[in-house]
Amino acid sequence: MEDDRLTLTILGSGTSTGVPQIGCQCEVCRSGDPRDKRLRQSALVEWRGKRILIDCGPDFRQQILGTGDAHLDALLITHIHYDHIGGLEELRGFSNFPIYARHDVIAALHRRLAYCFAEHPYPGVPHYELVEINDNDAFECAGITVEPIPVLHYKLPILGFKIGGMAYITDCKTIDRELIERLRGVPLLVLNALRFEEHLSHLSLSQALEIIEQIKPGRALLIHMSHGIGLHAETSKLLPQGVELAFDGMKIVV
């Protein structure tokens, strides 16, 4: 029988500043625990012979080389913020690489990377195949069915993604009750938790735990963490059973 298990690799578990944060001397930023070293958020999904990247931030080169296998079949973009798209230039080695994103993200990429979409592009620039997706319709990505999960990042509509038995949501502040019901009992939920204190546009730890309690996944991982989440070893002691802080390089099989 063919193995149909999905593997998720957390390439980066940090927020936009990364951890350690430049210029900070807090105990988290000075920690010697490798689990407290957090590159900017990104993840790799491997399923049914395909390798799909979720977000491509400014640490992407370091992250993908660290996997030992740079092959990728497609990219899913959650939203346009730099810590999620800052590594797109590193995809120049791929020919007509497929990138799936909302219409507003595609429009912003045309503005930010205008030289890649010029009528007569400069030799050697990356070539992307931009594929528009919407909030409500499942789509095929490298032959894999992906369900979008629309959430709000403060007032900015962004997307999480459900692939097989995994739901991946980052930079969320608000998620509709209907979506919570739809995700109930998902085997693996990956969800952002920026810090202990409340934040304007991200879930705090307590808010993330409330959503996890409502969804009741088989297992939950927390991502997109700042130094405000505390030391990995100490904060992990405070989490309920089945909930874990993710760390860079972590692999999970669903």
Structure description:
- This protein has a seven-stranded mixed sheet with strand order 6-5-4-3-2-1-14. Strands 7-8-9-10-11-12-13 form a seven-stranded mixed sheet, covered by helices on one side.
- With 254 residues, the chain is α/β, with parallel strands linked by helices.
- It contains six helices and 14 strands.
- The two termini are 17 Å apart.
- The chain has helices at residues 60-66, 82-85, 103-112, 177-183, 205-215, 232-235; strands spanning 7-12, 42-47, 50-54, 74-76, 97-101, 128-132, 139-141, 144-153, 156-163, 166-169, 188-192, 219-223, 243-245, 251-253.
- Strand 11, helix 5 and strand 12 form a beta-alpha-beta unit.
Fraction in beta strands? 25-35%
Strand order of the largest sheet: 6-5-4-3-2-1-14
Report the structural category. alpha/beta
- Helix share of residues? 10-25%
Cα radius of gyration in angstroms: 18 Å
Name the assembly state: single chain
Q: Sheet with the most strands?
A: 7 strands, mixed
Look at the structure and give the mean pLDDT: 96
Offer a quick outline of the entry.
This protein is an alpha/beta fold and 254 residues long.
